[in-house]
């Protein structure tokens, strides 16, 4: 599903964010990406959905070589990926329904399929009753559930999440994580960067630890392994 071969990322200021990373993530896995601040986690995540391009090496994602595709092919690759961010990135002037529908409109989905599919995923995240509300009328947890619905609406094979509980209280964080686990159990691959030690240590999924741009640990049923 996801493979990296000798991936390096050097930024214009000379910083080596990643140094020779090799990894394989199988279809249906749930993987936590952990490590100290500045270790390279965000770069690792951004390379997967082609927000960044590797300086060296190759990245394969769902059958695409994302390190070598042309710019015009990037939207095609992103159709197979759902991305969830720490700060939600919802469009403030659109309703909950419209924010989720927008993800389908962007890929020119059949208009007849949009409404039933959007209502289906809003039902999954338990927000169908708030479809007509604006993001500003929702709690932080509800906004993150809208963001998750938007990531899911195009039936991606992979969900990539960058600190999805970073702005949420502990109880809400667990609600969001239960949704991610349910999504994973339905067959979607989940790759999540997080600093939440309690969640990682409790859920016991595969843990990939990045330190100073390299993979320091890669453990099945792993632990967070860092002090706060």
TrEMBL record:
Does the keyword Cell cycle belong to this entry? yes
Q: Which domain of life is it from?
A: Bacteria
| Keywords from the named record | ATP-binding, Cell cycle, Cell division, Cell membrane, Membrane, Nucleotide-binding, Transport
> Which GO terms label this protein's molecular function in UniProt?
ATP binding; ATP hydrolysis activity; transmembrane transporter activity
According to its UniProt record, where is this protein located? Cell membrane
Q: How does it sit in the membrane?
A: Peripheral membrane protein
Classification via Pfam families: ABC_tran
Cross-referenced Gene3D superfamilies, in alphabetical order?
Answer: P-loop containing nucleotide triphosphate hydrolases
Q: Which GO terms describe its cellular component?
A: plasma membrane
Which GO BP terms sit in this record? Answer: cell division
What residues does the ABC transporter domain cover?
2-227
Concerning InterPro entries, the annotation shows: AAA+_ATPase (IPR003593), ABC_transporter-like_ATP-bd (IPR003439), ABC_transporter-like_CS (IPR017871), ABC_transpr_LolD-like (IPR015854), Cell_div_FtsE (IPR005286), P-loop_NTPase (IPR027417)
Establish whether keyword 4Fe-4S is in the entry: no
- What does this gene product do? Part of the ABC transporter FtsEX involved in cellular division.
NCBIfam families, A to Z:
FtsE
Summary of subunit composition and partner proteins: Homodimer. Forms a membrane-associated complex with FtsX.
Give the protein family. Answer: Belongs to the ABC transporter superfamily.
The protein depicted here goes by the name: Cell division ATP-binding protein FtsE
List the lineage, top down: Bacteria, Bacillati, Bacillota, Bacilli, Bacillales
